[in-house]
Every structure is written in C-alpha cells, then in structure tokens.
C-alpha cells in the first residue's frame, strides 16, 4: 500500500528565476545545478542555472537545451529540500522525461548520469532525420481521440499521452497533425499545439530509440531503492532491467499517466506532491481522481518560492519523517536494493498564517471602550466600478481562485504569468469572468490583453473599458 506519491513533471515544468530563493551557494541544491551545468557544457549547451536563479522572467531568452534540463534541475532541487526535511515519498511517478528525474531520486542513476541520458535523448532525436513533427493536445477522452486519428488515416499519428478524462496528446508529422486539428475544429474539440519540437512517444522515433540505447549502454543503472511506478511501462519498476527497459523505450512508449494515477489511488495513495514548477500534474490529479485524493504543487511560480520552505515544513510535520537525509549527488546504492517507506497517516497540508501577537498591556490597567467613529464615505467612481481598493481585491481574488492559493500571495505588482505561473488559458478565463462580473464590453482588437501583467494593470484596463462603454 502507498499513501504519499511524489510526482515529477516533464519538459516546460520550470519557471525562469524561480529557484533564486531556494538555492544558497554551497547547498545541495546549488550542487545539483552545478552538476547539470557541467554536463550541459560537455554537449555545447548553455548553462541552465542562470535561467533558474534569475533575475529572469517569461521574456528571457532560453537555450533549446533548457527545455530538457530546466525541468530536471528544478525537480531535483525541490527533491533535495523534501529529503532534507524528511518528507516521506512512498512511491515516485514521473511524466514523460520526468521519469528520469524519478529514477535519480530512487537511486537508479546519479544526477550526472541522468543529465547525460537527457542530453543523449535529445541528440538522438535531433539526428534522426525525421521530417518536421510535433505534438498536439486535445480536450477529449482517449477513445474519441483514437477515433479521430483513425479518421485521419495517417500512420505517423499516435496517441502519445493519456493525461486525464479530457486531455490527450497526439504526436506525428506536421501534415497529419494539420488534418487532425482541422477535423477536431469541425467537431468543436479544442486543440493546442505543444512547444515540443518532435513527435515524442511515437514509434516513428524507433531509429532514434535504438541510437539512444547504444549511446547510453555504458551508463550504470541500479535497481530503484524506492518504489517507482512507470506510466510508460504501465507497472512498477522494481529491477535494474526494468530501468533499462524504460530507457530503451522512452522515445517510443506512450505515457499512460491517467492509468498510473488510478492504479496508485486504488493502492491507497491519497496525497500527491508535485516536485516541479507550475501545477500541471496537480491539475491532472484533480481531474482524474475522486475528492479524497489531495494534490500539492510545491512551486507554481516565482512568487510562491518564498512559501516553499513553509509548505515543506508543513508536509514534514503532518506526515512524519520518512526519508533519511542525504544527497542525490553522492549516495550510491546497491543494484538489488528495493525499500518502501512505511506510510504515515495522511492529512491534506494546510498553510496557516502566523498568529497575530497581542500588544502588551500593563497589569491591572483598565481598557477604555473604543470610541465609535463613523468612517467617512469613500468617493464612488463615476465609471460604475467599485473603488480602487475593492476593484483590485476582486481582481486579486479571481486570479487566486484560478490558481487555488491564498489571495495574499497575489500582490498589486505581482507578475501574473512570470511569477505566479498562470497559463494563458487561465488568464483568458479570468479576464472573461471579470468582464461578465462588471458587465463590461469586450475590448477591440487593438487592445492586447496579455500586456496587462499585474493586478494593478488589469484593474486599470477594466476602468478604461468601463469609461468607454
């Protein structure tokens, strides 16, 4: 039985500048970044640490290799913090390239070895000679997406990722994906082209998979010392041979993440902790599993980084010490060891604000009754919207509710996307909600909504629309 699951997301699960508050020089997290940078340099890639430590935001230029090493380094830095705090992880589960991160935490490979696997994985795809290809997410169940692929009748299409009841990813060559998107549009099925530069988890990468297997054959792989569930293998990964099988198929095997979540839930998992930036896997838990399953996103964006230590402290206090402190960089494991941590009773973690300390009063002093003072009425804006403080509070609460964390985290000048990690779709949904709330007209095409990046700026836009109606 498993109670607590650590989840490791794949590409794009990093946020520029988000680790600056979590990695001090000389810490194990800083050593992880140094190790990843050293491997990146061997392959002629730019270092990843300047991007993750900042100062940087969503507009900062990123090297192509950051897509493959940014999520990896972020997950391992967060894992070091969890391990150091003694937060238990009864089972580890990775998503796509995140399975490599899970293998490091489980003791199958060192940070250095796994970073080389990711670099070789990317090289193998880049050198495959495959025509232009990509990946497309569709908001439909897997059985319906499979029928759409059959209707397109192109052998390069493959259902690559089954994320949830209404989120499936298809990969293939661009002409086939274009036809798939057109068919989906005709059926009013929403699609989204992912920023992944090839058709990963597709048999058309078979040649690249064989090349990768040859290139990483010399890298030692141990049996996991923690329980690992592989969505690509569709079962528990218990031996070194299992780990080798996963690496050999990592480019072609589909990711059955929805099935993995269900299997872990049926086995008793109730708390799922996302060891990465943003909250992609957290949302999948909420979409795929019943209400008793609780999901915690450690790092949704730069603004939440300051709360990560408190969140981890709460997890440790609620669930006891399950992991012995150590470093992912130095611990080497036996090839046959397989240890499962003893599960602790699970309660969803709650972040509590510190209690307000009362002011000291002299002993025996009498406290006069407060005088009744009628506040002066606030001036009512002529545009029909609330006064500025109330308007900003309503905007703040709308974004906080969309991200599912306390409104006090969203300050007037907080970057909604760069610091909070809110997606473009979430921003659009909140904006439409605010327009409906205040009965405002849609802005004309000259207004670029994405340029309004803070609560204060969005409140200003709402006032402009109110004045123009």
TrEMBL record:
The keyword Ribonucleoprotein does not apply. InterPro entries: Ac_transferase_dom_sf (IPR001227), ACP-like_sf (IPR036736), Acyl_transferase_dom (IPR014043), Acyl_Trfase/lysoPLipase (IPR016035), Mal-CoA-ACP_Trans/PKS_FabD (IPR050858), Malonyl_transacylase_ACP-bd (IPR016036), PP-bd_ACP (IPR009081). It comes from Streptomyces formicae. Pfam families: Acyl_transf_1, PP-binding. Its EC number is 2.3.1.39. It catalyses: holo-[ACP] + malonyl-CoA = malonyl-[ACP] + CoA. One of its GO terms (molecular function) is acyltransferase activity. Signal peptide: none annotated. Keywords: Acyltransferase, Antibiotic biosynthesis, Transferase. Residues 365-375 have a biased composition (Low complexity). Residues 354-383 are annotated as: Disordered. Residues 386-466 form the Carrier domain. This is [acyl-carrier-protein] S-malonyltransferase.
């Amino acid at each position: 039985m498993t109670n607590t699951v650590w989840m490791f997301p794949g590409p794009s699960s990093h946020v520029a500048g988000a680790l600056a508050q979590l990695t001090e020089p000389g810490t194990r997290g800083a050593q992880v970044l140094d190790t990843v940078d050293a491997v990146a340099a061997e392959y002629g890639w730019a270092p990843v640490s300047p991007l993750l430590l900042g100062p940087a935001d969503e507009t900062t230029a990123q090297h192509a290799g950051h897509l493959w090493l940014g999520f990896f380094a972020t997950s391992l830095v967060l894992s070091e913090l969890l391990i150091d705090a003694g937060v238990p992880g009864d089972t580890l589960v990775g998503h796509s390239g995140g399975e490599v991160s899970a293998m490091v935490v489980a003791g199958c490979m060192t940070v250095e070895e796994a970073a080389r696997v990711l670099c070789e994985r990317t090289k193998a795809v880049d050198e495959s000679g495959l025509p232009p290809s990509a990946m497309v997410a569709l908001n439909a169940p897997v059985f319906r997406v499979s029928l759409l692929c059959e209707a397109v009748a192109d052998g390069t299409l493959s259902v690559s990722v089954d994320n949830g009841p209404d989120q499936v990813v298809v990969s293939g060559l661009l002409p086939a994906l274009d036809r798939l998107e057109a068919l989906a549009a005709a059926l009013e099925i929403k699609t989204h082209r992912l920023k992944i530069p090839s058709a990963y988890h597709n048999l058309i990468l078979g040649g690249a998979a064989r090349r990768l297997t040859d290139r990483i054959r010399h890298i030692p792989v141990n049996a996991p010392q923690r329980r690992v569930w592989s969505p690509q293998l569709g079962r528990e990964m218990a031996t070194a041979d299992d780990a080798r099988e996963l690496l050999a198929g990592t480019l072609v095997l589909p990711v059955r993440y929805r099935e993995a979540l269900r299997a872990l839930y049926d086995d008793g998992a109730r708390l799922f902790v996302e060891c990465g930036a943003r909250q992609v896997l957290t949302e999948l838990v909420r979409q795929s599993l019943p209400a008793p399953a609780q999901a915690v996103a450690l790092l949704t964006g730069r603004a939440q980084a300051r709360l990560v230590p408190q969140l981890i402290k709460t997890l440790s206090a609620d669930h006891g010490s399950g992991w012995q402190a150590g470093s992912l960089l130095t611990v080497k494991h036996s090839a046959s060891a397989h240890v499962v941590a003893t599960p602790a009773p699970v309660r969803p973690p709650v972040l509590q604000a510190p209690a307000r300390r009362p002011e000291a009063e002299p002993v025996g002093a009498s406290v006069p009754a407060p005088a009744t003072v009628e506040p002066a009425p606030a001036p009512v804006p002529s545009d029909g919207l609330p006064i500025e403080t109330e308007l900003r509070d309503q905007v703040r609460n709308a974004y906080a509710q969309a991200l599912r964390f306390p409104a006090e985290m969203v300050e007037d000048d907080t970057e909604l996307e760069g610091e909070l990690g809110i997606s473009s779709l979430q921003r659009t949904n909140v904006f439409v909600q605010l327009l409906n709330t205040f009965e405002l007209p849609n802005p004309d095409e000259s207004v670029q909504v994405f340029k309004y990046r803070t609560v204060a700026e969005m409140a200003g836009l709402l006032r402009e629309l109110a004045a123009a109606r």
